[in-house]
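cron nightly-structures :: item 1 of 1
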Amino acid sequence: MPADPAPRPPLSATVITFNEAARIGDCLASLAFCDEIVVVDSGSTDATRAIAEAMGARVLVRPFDGFRSQKQFAVDQAGHDWVLCLDADERVDERLRAAIEAERDAGFARAAGYRFARLSEYFGRFLRHGNVYPDRKLRLFDRRRGGWRGEREIHETASVDGPVATLEGDLLHLPFRSLQHHLDKGQQYARMMAEYEFAHGRRASLAGLVVAPAWRFFRGYVLRRGFLDGWPGLLECFVTANYVRQKTVMLWMLERGLPLVDPPR
C-alpha cells in the first residue's frame, strides 16, 4: 500500500506594523489563505490596528526595539509552528501563493525553510534588474528549526537549521510612499547600521566614503543591468548608493562623538 500523504500543516502569518493604514489591508488580503494572521504593532496613531482587527487579524501592541526583535516576537506569538513573515508593504502574488499551497499540501516535507524573490516597485515601475531583484528572502519556515536570529536589528535575516528550498513567484514589495519617505527611511537605516558597525569595532574609511558608493551604483546599474528599468532604475541606484555614503559619514561622526540627530533642547 502507498504511504499516507504527509498531513497538511496549519500556517500562521505574521506582520509588523507602524502607521500603515494605507497599506495593511492589501497585505492582509494576500495572506487570507493562512490559518491565522498575527499583527504586532509598534503604537500606530492611525487606523492600522482597527483595519487589521476588522480583517480578522490578532493584533498585539509592543514598543519597537528593533526590526529583528519585533519580528521574532511576532513569530513567538504565532499559534502554529510553520510561519510566513511579511512586512506591511509586502504582498504575496498568485504564483507564490500557489507554490506555498503546493508545499503545504505536501507537508512542507522538502525543507526547514523556503525563500522566494522579492519584486520591488519604485515610483510606478516594478524593478526586475539591478541590486533589488531577485532579492530572495527566507520568509517561510518552521520556527522549531529557525527564526530571526543574531544581534543585528537592521537588515535582519531569518535562518534555519536544515535545508532551504526556493519557491516560484514573487513577494511584491511597495516600500516607498514618496521620495521623501525613501530619503527618510534610507537615513534611518544608515544611522542604525552605522551604530551597529561602530558598536562592533568598524571604523569609517575613505574607501567607504568614495569607492563603496560608486561600486554599489556600478554593480546595480551596469553589471546587474539596472539601466533596463529606465528612469526608476537609474534613480533607485543613485539613491541607494547615497545610503552607503551616508552610513560612512555617520560612522565617522560616531567615532568623534558628534551628534547624528538634534540634541534635546
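cron nightly-structures :: done
The longest helix spans residues 230-255.
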